[in-house]
Specification:
mainly alpha
Amino acid sequence: MTWFIALLFGFVQGLTEFLPVSSSGHLAVISMLTLENSDIFFTVLLHAATFISVCAAFRGEVAGLLRAALAFVPDRVKRRPVTPEQRLLELMAVSLLPLAFAVPFRSRIEALFESPAAIGLALIATAVLVLLSDRFGRGSKTLRDIKFRDALIIGLVQTAAIIPGLSRSGSTLAAALFCGLDRDAAVKYSFILSLPTILAAAALESAEAFAAGIDPARLGPYALGFAAAALTGYASIGLVRFLTGKGRLKYFSIYTAALGAGLLLSRLF
């Protein structure tokens, strides 16, 4: 892996992980164009970089959730009232449950990364979801108002988003808006929910990464890609928060629809 390829993959991962345009779809397209693939260890590093981006962007909320997690069992033993942060942890657990049912189909889903047509269709589906949510998502629920039913719906949509081309951030953001969350709450829940999701993906890949070994000659490019993903990830979170609040997600919808159509047309010529 060259320095340029590492920088390119890191930049694309960080930029598209949180924009509603599908990082998996973009990385697949980059691989097709450059004939380069991100090795498994580098993939884990990129996940770690985007994890750090979310922690930095929502450091107050993340710190509160960590304190709530540490106090969860003692509070239940002492029968103390559930705090808003602890309830949010419960909601996130409900949202994560559907992912367990997708693990047995992992190899079939990974095969879709080689299919421009499948990725193109998924990108168009992302465009439709984002456009509809931007147009009709006018809810007023805050994080304290989320119901367990809402959390399950968001989790089911997130599980579908493991298909390359179907944006995780775009899908969960759309689902949250359709469930009646206000725009700020929808963005926060979507991105905070990405933390355990990213950790789960990294955990699945870590065993394979260390079994395959690490090439010391690639440590420099790895570090460059990691830094690029972390910095662009942080910037893209800010961009999504701004555009969601302004009701301008349609711009992402236009872009993903065009990219998806381009991939479909590429199969005809």
